[in-house]
Give the backbone structure.
Amino acid sequence: MALTPDDVVTKQFQHVRFKDGFDPDEVDDFLDEVVLEWRKALEENAELKAKLAAYESGEKAAAPVAEAPAAPAPVAAPAPAAEGGAPAAATAGIIELAQRLHDEHVAEGKSQRDQLIADAKAQASKILADAEQKQREETARLERERTVLEGKITELHDFERSYRTQLRSYIEGQLRDLDEKGGPTGDASAQ
């Protein structure tokens, strides 16, 4: 089946799900340009065919005169190429454009992927650095707190020793006083 400009105009594309596709307005505008150029090429082809037919009929009539110019002969050769080549060239151009757009989108996707990976790695290293910094700060804070608590424990041990010594001295002093007072009183109670 030969592709016609009307086929291009009426072509419906499937919508892409889960990812962005081409901008439909941009595709429509481009296809409109393709159709215009294609129609111009087809009109030019028809015009050249008519000129060729007129030239060939005129050449047959003018053949006995032998005044056929040499320049129109090369014009006849491109006409069949234009006839079969124009749609093929337009199709090849569309395919080339589609391939170029595909390659651009793939390259853009790879670029975005690489950027996302780089951003994620940078964010991960920042999070890791922050966590390490917080860990160092927390360790330093706990070490300071430990030093303070050890100092308080040492103070409490010293206070306990001092208190026991004072308490022992006080109790021993009270016992001596009791012994001293208790001796004469004890002797008096025994009499």
Notes: Residues 64-84 have pLDDT under 50 and may be disordered. Residues 5-9+22-132 form one domain. Residues 5 and 38 are 7 Å apart (CA to CA). The first helix runs from residue 5 to 10.
